Amino acid sequence: MRLEDFDNDEDKVIQDRLKRKTWNEIRTNDSWAIFKIMAEFVNGYESMGRIGPCVTIFGSARTKPEDAYYLLAEKIAYKISKAGYGVITGGGPGIMEAGNKGAHLGGGTSVGLNIELPFEQHFNPYIDSDKNLNFDYFFVRKVMFVKYSQGFVVMPGGFGTMDELFEAMTLIQTKKIAKFPIILVGTSFWSGLIDWIKTVLVEKERTVSAEDLNLFKIVDTEDEVVDVLNAFYKKYDLSPNF
């Protein structure tokens, strides 16, 4: 079928990507993509290397300002900033906005790592003007989250939040990065997933070790989040303002 024979844009995009390309077209497109990826890494490293110790807050872009989890994320970010950490988010609306807002109100560093998406994503107004970074590639953005965070606070979210959570746990599990606190907020939201991991992955299929359940903590309040962060870094003789 020809491109013009398709009725919707999604089908047209798929058909265009499946279209047979010449070797010169493939080589040219891939070569320029390498330079673009390199530029995102360089810009990210240079910008993030100056921000100091931070904690990343993940969560849904769809959470409304009146939602209980939005309000809790704002309180968590405020407490984190008062404890001496900066806050990093994905830079968009929802939980991300709440995180940046709490950091802003707490007088702390407020970082946004934005990515352009066909829906949902636009940067929120609570990011420090010199710490609002934009990315085209998800994998470059995720490197920045992991490399420059002293902890992950994971609020309720969707596929993107799950992706970021499991990537962090995988990197720690496989010892590709050093262990750091991963804090899941909301027992009622996370309990079903954790029960499934315990009963199916650990006990039935044995695809995960029981000790891997120690990679994260589940809490419900802002004070518990700060307690987990402080307890972890006290054990390893580190402090937020190192």
UniProtKB/TrEMBL annotation:
Reaction equations catalysed: AMP + H2O = D-ribose 5-phosphate + adenine
UniProt keyword annotation of Hydrolase present: yes
Any Pfam family the entry gives: Lysine_decarbox
Top class in the EC scheme: hydrolase
Alphabetically ordered keywords of this record: Cytokinin biosynthesis, Hydrolase
GO cellular component: cytosol
GO molecular-function term, one example from the UniProt record: AMP nucleosidase activity
Hydrolase found in the keyword field: yes
GO BP of this protein: cytokinin biosynthetic process
Domain of life: Bacteria
Family per record: Belongs to the LOG family.
NCBIfam families in the record: Rossman fold protein, TIGR00730 family
Protein name as it appears in the record: Cytokinin riboside 5'-monophosphate phosphoribohydrolase
Organism: Flavobacterium sinopsychrotolerans
